[in-house]
Amino acid sequence: MRIVLVGICGSGKTTLALRLHRLGYEVRECGQEHSEVPHMWQVMSRPDALIYLDASEKVIHQRGRRHYVKDMVVQQRRRLAHARAHCDLYVMTDDLTPAEVLERVTRFLARRGAEAGVDLTGT
Q1: Contacts of 14 (CB under 8 A, 6+ apart)
Q2: pLDDT tens, position by position, 22-74
Q3: Is the CB of residue 108 less than 8 Å from the CB of residue 69?
Q4: Is 31 helix (H, G, I), strand (E, B) or coil?
């Protein structure tokens, strides 16, 4: 199963992608938040499961994304509107630890029939 992650900067995509990869999932981050092509995630990634991660402006700021101002977050959400409307799973990460986000996503993937592979790299 090809899993694609989208979401605004600071929502936890990279952390989740690394953790899913370690479990053996085929996962890719799509930079949809930087593209003016609304359906880029469909064309470039062709996902079997599209997971949208979100975070509030306050949490993005707390996570060290201090250079992101309100206008940039608004712009990213506009660029991600198509992906959000079509996502298979939406996760607001504000009140979740990375482990809780991973648990929520892996439970969803298990319900969809996706199984983790075996990661032999040890990373």
Answers
A1: 29
A2: 999 999 988 777 667 666 776 677 889 999 999 988 888 887 755 666 778 88
A3: no
A4: coil
Kindly list the structural domains of the chain, giving each domain's residue range(s) and its CATH number in brackets, ordered by start.
2-110 (3.40.50.300)
Q: What is the largest CA-CA distance in the chain?
A: 43
- Integer Cα distance of 105 and 97 in angstroms: 12
Sheet of 26-29, strands arranged across: 26-29, 2-7, 49-54, 89-92
Burial class (CB in 10 A: 0-12, 13-18, 19+), 35: middle
Tokens representing residue 41 in the block: 């995630």
* Tens of pLDDT, residues 8-19: 988 999 999 999
